[in-house]
Amino acid sequence: MKILVAEDEPIMLKTIELRLKKDGHEVMATDNGRKALEYVEQHQPDMIITDIMMPYTSGLEIVGKVRQGEKYIPVIVLSSMGQENVVLEAFNLGADDYITKPFSPNELSIRVKRLGQRM
Amino acid sequence: MKTQSYIRILFAVLLIGAASVVVALFQNAQRTNATFNLVNHTHEVISAINDLNTTVLSLETAVRGYVITGNGTFIKDFAATTSSLHEQSQLLQQLTKDNPDQQSHIQKLQQTIEDKSSFQQKILNAYNHSPKDALQLIASLQGKNLSDTARALLHHMERHERQLLQLRITDNRETTHNRFIFSVFVIVLSLVAITIALQKIARANQLRAAAEQKARETEVRYHSMVENSAVVMYSARLDGQIDYVSSKCIQLTGYDAAELRCKPITFLVLEDWQESVAQRYKEQIRNKTHETLHVFPIRTKDGAIKWVEQSMVLLLNEKGVASGFQSVVKDITEKRLAEEALKIAAQEIEAKKEEYQYRMQSILDNIPMIVYIKDLEGRYLMVNRRFRETFLLNDDQVLGKENSEVFADDDMARVLASVDRQVINKLQPVEFEDMINTSQGNRHMLVTKFPLLDQANNIFAICGVDKDITEMVAGRQQLIDARLRAERAERLQEEFLANMSHEIRTPMNGIIGMTNLLEESALSEDQKEFVQLIKYSSNTLLALINDILDLSKIKAGRMSVERIPFSVREVVDEVVSTFRIKAAASNVAVVTTIDSNLPQLLQGDRHKLVQVLNNLLGNAVKFTAQGRISVTVSILEQNEKSLRMGFRVADTGMGIAPEYRDYIFESFAQTGNDTARLFGGTGLGLAITKRLVELQGGTIGVESRTGEGSVFFFDVLYLHAELPQAQQQLAGATNTADKSMLAGKKILLVEDNLINQKVTCLLLQKVGVVVTIAGNGKEAVDRLESGETFDLVIMDLQMPEMNGLQATAYIRNKLQLQLPIIAMTASALRNERERCFEMGMNEYLTKPFVPAELFRQLCRFLGCAGVPVQERVVVSNKAKPAEMYNLAYLHELEDDGYLAETLTLFLETTPGQLEELRQGVLEEQWDEVQARAHKLKSSLGMLQMTSMLELAATIENCAKNRQDLELVLQKVTRLQQKFELVQPMLEADRQKVLCPQ
């Protein structure tokens, strides 16, 4: 699958990128919300994994924008400890799943696979 | 009306009925009469017939008789009878002339009679000739036949008559009956009609009566209505003269009805108005307007002016000609006043509103902040003057447009738009700082955007207020800089203290340690004396250094108070025993009295108690030439949590002169310069003692009399010890540990200072300990990692490469070794003792150390006679420390390259991030702090650094909610410290991945 990952923390980004690449996915990793949205528009990924808190463009905005688009792209949001209410908001906007940091990369891998199967 | 017609009908019916009855009756009577007549007639006829019959018969008889007898008497009346016969037949004829049948009979009869008569005549004639011929004639039956015929005819006629009679009677009866029935019927009908009519009339009367009653009542009501109504009603003639006024007029006008009657309509109208009022009504008459409404003032009887509303109705008669007026007058004075008042009020409100608007506009335009309102799509609805001036835009360029159209900077527009969205979504104000390009260049703005809610609490617009805080920021920056400098100064001071402490104490340790060793080596008498002097000097120096450092520390607020279990009794005994010998030299006895209720263990600062008692006893011994020194320990008060201990050190020495008594607790104060020279001492002792006591929540004081002695008393607050019984035994541990048990034990000494190494090493080797030396934490860790085993580690704290805490962290967390670690340190950092225990160290000693103390500790952990081997953690209140990090997640990726890269990245960037975080806190940039803390959480979480993660989360929360901000800095410090501890271990891990061996 073509997966877009938006995360501004380099270690987290690298970890996710590596994990997904190992699973055989094509990964576009970016730490920038705006670039992420551009990528969505140009490349129409099969899945989006995005952090919620990012400078300038929040993950919620990305979810919102993606839902406005034509194609239905499944979205997983990455939340931090103590951000449960934001997760709810994400779901309201149309996110499909969430995973709380810190998380095991294996767990992420499984979730991605399951979400991909569901679609 | 109906009644009348009813009556008419009734009358007619009655009339008809009566008439018909009368007619019927009359007819009946007539008929009866007729019938009666008829009956009579018939009877006459019948009698006539009978007579005739008789006559015929008699004639017959007469003839017969004559003939037979020849008697002439028989025919004597013959002629008369024959004429009467004729008469009778004429009569009969007469009687039946109306009946043609009978007439024909009569004809026949008359004929017969004629025949008979003529026959009889014949007979008679015949007799005269010959009686025999007569007889023959009679015998010829002709006569008889004729008589029979006559008789039959008569009989027939009679019968006929009788039938006729019967018929007529019957007929009459029937008719009568019918007529009678009819009459009865008509009568009944009439009666019924009468009854009905009467009923109807009665009812009609009733209704009318009722109606009349109602009308009367209505009339009454109406009248009373008119009279009682709140309005005045009157009627007037066409010429304007009043002819009726309701009695209410008196209330309205002051005049009663009588007074107003016959007055003109305009009588009450206010003079100026009279003309116009009169005009109006004249016009009404002219135009035949049905109703007019007119408002004008009137003057009442007592001269007051009232306003009335008059409704005037023009009355027209049936020809359509005006005949008069009818009017209803309402007193509207109040209403009018109210209206006036309302008008005035409305004007006032209007004026106020204008004023208000003007003021609002004034506020908006004069406010030294940029104010603007945007609709929910982000288009500007209103901007104030400042806005226009700042951005050099006028309303046309802004109103109705969005940010992207107004400002050139796309990024900024986008950011502003997203903030707007936030405000709309959250319905909460949003505040942020940003650089905004204005006509005066880039200015630092504090932007506050908040939702505007309507009465239904729905958002209808966003309002923004921008404040130029460039100067403020600059000022703030200065403050921050000042604060940074202050913080730095504080840190430097702390570091200085710590360093100084370390720098000074380390060589002191060397000197004293060496001196001790020297003392125990083979010396000549002179050398022994020299050593003693060196010892004395160095001890003094050490004491001085300690005092200075202590006082500095206390003054800098860096002195912390321990809270560990210890035995007060033990301390007292220890200190006293130290001085007993010295006192004995002056023949001064030292006596101790300790409250028997004193608990075995209390929680507090042992060291400080030692210091204080040392100081007081030292002074006592110094200044008491003879007599005794008594030390008393008592419990002043206690509750379940704490206990206040009182101490008294009384001596029989020289005492303190009154003038000095107030100053002795001050630094450097002594009772005169002589004293200083005579008795030495730094003069700091009591000052420090006082502060030490006060730090522990106690007070200190003195009573003294010159020449008699002094009593120093102080109290300290201790907490009850929490440890289980088993630990109580520890308190009983004595100094008389058998050091021999230490022989053969392997101790790892981690110390970077060569001299200290030597000192400690030799000391230990003397009792047979096998000492291995590591120059720093790294070496120690390497040794342990490589598999070397030791019974105990003595760890200095301040070392290069890897310090004591880091090494301990490594040993406990990474190597998972539980062997006892004793910290030995010259540094005096705040909370250092705590941190050592937190890290997993078992004991903490300060340098220069007392050898006996060291041995005691060693015995505790290695097991000597008289002292049970201690479980590792005695005083630390933490269980086995939680692991500081876990690379499990990283390992999941099974990629060494990734692992190394990640660890490198983490180790390289985190210190910087932590420093930036610290910077953010110092600058009070809480949004920055929040963001940075948040970011840290990511990587900390990745490496499963739970306690650090929690710290970062707490910092993030505090920054986000702007709560407990004073605590954030220390949390950041702790975070940095924890990172420092974890660093070497991660380094080692990284090394292992990069260069696996």
Account of the protein in words:
The complex is a heterodimer of chains A (119) and B (997). With 119 residues, chain A is an alpha/beta fold. Chain A has one domain: Response regulator (Rossmann fold, 3-Layer(aba) Sandwich), CATH 3.40.50. Chain A contains five helices and five strands. The longest helix of chain A has 14 residues, at 105-118. Chain B is of the alpha+beta class and 997 residues long. Chain B folds into seven domains: 2-197, Up-down Bundle (de novo design (two linked rop proteins)); 229-331, Beta-Lactamase; 367-468, 2-Layer Sandwich (Beta-Lactamase); 475-559, Signal transduction histidine kinase, dimerisation/phosphotransfer (DHp) domain (Helix Hairpins); 568-730, Histidine kinase-like ATPase, C-terminal domain (Heat Shock Protein 90, 2-Layer Sandwich), CATH 3.30.565.10; 739-862, 3-Layer(aba) Sandwich (Rossmann fold), CATH 3.40.50.2300; 888-994, HPT domain (Four Helix Bundle (Hemerythrin (Met), subunit A)). Chain B is built from 31 helices and 22 strands. In chain B, strand 20, helix 24 (804-814) and strand 21 (821-825) form a beta-alpha-beta unit. Chains A and B meet through helix 1 of A and helix 13, helix 27, helix 28, helix 29 and helix 30 of B.
